[in-house]
Fold:
Amino acid sequence: MTADLATDVFEEHRPLLMGVAYRMLGRVADAEDVVQDAWLRWSGADRAEVREPRAYLVRVTTRLAIDRLRQVQGRGEAYIGPWLPEPYLTEFGETAPDTADRAVLADTVSLAVLVVLESLSPLERAVFVLREAFGYPFAEIAALLDRGEPAVRQLAGRARRHVAERRPRYDVDPARRRELTERFLAAATDGDLDGLMSLLAPDVRLVGDSGGKAKAPVRILHTADKIARFLAGVGPAALPVMSFRPLEANGGPAVLGLVGDKPDTLLQLDIADGRIVAVYLVRNPDKLRHLAER
Structure:
């Protein structure tokens, strides 16, 4: 395999590798580093011995992501306030050829699910991602991870039960989410308390991630009344100074708020039964920096 062909093969699989690495890590920069390390392994490998480049690249990427995840967990870093994954612009490309596969990919990269995945062990997370997001057979996952198939099945069952118990209920209809996002922004900008209350489910929660580097609630807020009053209080002052850019992040509609040309806030909503059940505000500037040029 020539160097040019090796590059073409890697670039063909880059979206898949980035999808695996991001779901494993929940951090864009770490996922990009892992994919770059996978490229270095690929460029230095004896590619004449590689029968299936896709399997080789996924195996290398998964193992590198497991190592990186263990390092992050081992550091035990304290984080100020609630934590959310870095927003990830989702362009599934050829990794999901039909609507059903795209829906699965969108669900497994959602903010709600990624928060739950943070509580899995690195191996459980790897098995869950490969099985649930990308549909790998158990035998192939076992080969990728150098584990026996029965052990992989146990890991998958444990991870699936854990996620099912903790995964919040929400609908993925993008048109409905976009409509409610527009109405939510209008009500918050106007300080329209009644309008906000009409959009929020009684048990709604607001998760604001600032990492202590921007203004946001230091705890998760609960109940429609408390969240509506909070938004009606801060919205009229904060939102009119922003411009808004719609985009798709983590498998669903989102809005990026900019002050000048600088990303300030990413907003995303989860809905269920036509009401907003979760409001996600990512305000940590370190997590928004990669969106500046998008």
Notes: The first strand starts at residue 200 and ends at 209. Residues 93-100 have pLDDT under 50 and may be disordered. Residues 3-25 form the longest helix (23 residues). The radius of gyration is 20 Å.
